[in-house]
Amino acid sequence: MRKIVIAGNWKMFKTRSESEDFLRGFLPHLEETPSEREVVLCPPFTDLSVMSKYLHGSLIQLGAQNVHWEENGAYTGEIAAPMLTEIGVRYVIVGHSERRQYFGETDATVNLRLKAAQKHGLIPILCVGETKQQRDAGETEKLITTQLEKDLVDVDQNNLVIAYEPIWAIGTGDTCESKEANRVIGLIRSQLTNPNVSIQYGGSVKPNNIDEIMAQPEIDGALVGGASLEADSFARIVNYQ
Ligand code: PEP
């Protein structure tokens, strides 16, 4: 059975008090959310601890936006998996295109982070997707196949979520057409050994397109950036029809 997973990626937005304000507005909406939907919030590291206290006993899961592959060590600025699990974090985004583009993340380091996350019981959300240039050059399928081959070496597919995030659709308002997202996600699924991996779509998901996206048979959820920052808008997304 494929699980529906809707995750909000807050990127580098929201202070601790802003995250508390968000929760006050958002939590009441979850009374309408079907219990089989997994709702995940991925705030900045500095918000995780306080949010963990608010969310204890709620249906929301906490996610981090990255994790290092070592358990500890002289890695200034990095965060290790045991630091996340001890405060109740359950998911972690790995290989987001912003990490690949701005912080030198490679398929090799993505693979190390995926394995470290799983070793410590975190569920990684692996992001893959093509640039506009790669899409226009007809390289989408090849690029995604290569990313999956390299990123998933020795990764347990029983404990994994994948997000198809076309880079040209992230933060641009230019959503990938839902049938096309469905097609690419089908292609991703065909390359997995476990057909039950949940595969999300991400890229300008909004309250006004979530119903159509979630109506697609291959799409098992969404990774949502901008529209997850505002309580009413993310509530409409998790309560899609
Ligand atoms: C993202 O950050 O993963 C994302 C998809 O952002 P947005 O929804 O703003 O396009």
From TrEMBL:
Binding site for substrate: N9, W10, K11, G171, S204, G225, G226
GO terms for MF: triose-phosphate isomerase activity
EC id: 5.3.1.1
Keywords: Cytoplasm, Gluconeogenesis, Glycolysis, Isomerase
Main location: cytoplasm
Gene3D superfamilies linked to this entry: Aldolase class I
Any one Pfam family match given in the protein's UniProt record, by short name: TIM
Domain of life: Bacteria
Known pathway: Carbohydrate biosynthesis; gluconeogenesis; Carbohydrate degradation; glycolysis; D-glyceraldehyde 3-phosphate from glycerone phosphate: step 1/1
Subcellular location: Cytoplasm
Family: Belongs to the triosephosphate isomerase family.
Classification via HAMAP family: TIM_B (MF_00147_B)
Subunit: Homodimer.
Name of this chain's protein: Triosephosphate isomerase
Annotated source species: Anabaena catenula FACHB-362
